[in-house]
Specification:
- The protein is 41% helix and 16% strand.
- It has 13 helices and twelve strands.
- Strands 9-8-7-6-10-11-12 form a seven-stranded mixed β-sheet, sandwiched between helices.
- Helix 2 (52-68) packs across helix 13 (357-375).
- The two termini are 25 Å apart.
- The record marks 113 as: Important for catalysis.
- Substrate binds at residues 41, 65.
- Keywords: NAD, Nucleotide-binding, Oxidoreductase.
Amino acid sequence: MRDLLQEIDEWGPEKVVCVSDARTGMRGVLVIDNTARGTGKGGTRMSPTVTVGEVARLARVMTWKWAAVDLFHGGAKAGIFADPDSPDKERIVRAFARRLADQIPASYVAGLDMGMTEHDAAIIQDELGDRGAAVGVPESLGGVPYDQLGVTGHGVAEAVDAALARQGRSVAGARVAVQGFGAVGAAAAKRLHELGAQLVALSTIDGSVHDPDGLDVPRWLDARAEFGDACVAKASAQQRIPRGEELLVDCDVLIPAAGQDVIDEAVAAGIRAGLVVEGANLPTTPEARRLLATREVTVVPDFIANAGGAIAAGFAMDARYSAFRPEPTAILRAVAERTRNNTVLVLDTAQADGVLPHQAALDLAKQRVRTAMQLRGRLPSIATA
């Protein structure tokens, strides 16, 4: 918490709320970063290792992500310090919701993140007796099924296609490596396969596989559906490679879609892809991005490439109290259009201004947030970056 206090700046965070419950052992945190453009919205993650600083970093990412896609919601994130596989998970989630009843949904609308499921979102709604308390609930309960649509991965794939097209290259035949064959990575692989790309490497927490001649994407999607992360155990010995090597294989496009800070300077020095599209939040360090730039490797920033979930969540936010649901095809169209446009805009701006794409994206988001803050009287009109 002491370190977080040193990170407070003109943008936020506006509010950090720590809660606990002695009966369940629940401990949680809510960080509302900036609400100049609307009510705080961001996922709630559950992990025994989650930290206040981590949640605060992710809340700031949501501030920029909402602004980058030009949707009027504020940046926020929440975390529950618990094992998502705990048999007491429901009691913990209910305790978390109760302790934040004065914040949800007035200041924060809960969503899904690591360790949380549609069922958990429904529990939050039920505990607070408010359909507007959370998004991401099952479709049977009136939710918008954007997770089943794989919207984040779909958007990542569209960012890949747009970035390659900008370089005068086709996605058809492009060799792609995906770190993290979870919800985002698998959906990206599926969409890229539809577009004609060739998946040459993938990984899960259980291991990595590589085939320079291309992996059978439909077969791997089926294996993931049946075995989860353990699907890599079904690979032949010839395909298995050490964990982490999937980042370094010979390919055209690398999609880091797993954890934070997985690409540091040492890893960046060995990357052989010419294009890195960030599927995860914060997968590259600033030092790595600078090194990649000197090597003429293009990086599409996380809050541009993986904003599909946020775009779809915007539909869900609008539909919380409505009897009507948006058409899935309309959601996917919006994800593709906004992601592709933002990818090209950011890469063009970065080239024109002589800055890294992350800086160009950040400048775009900051300007939109700054304008909202000025309109609300939270910043003087002469404020600078």
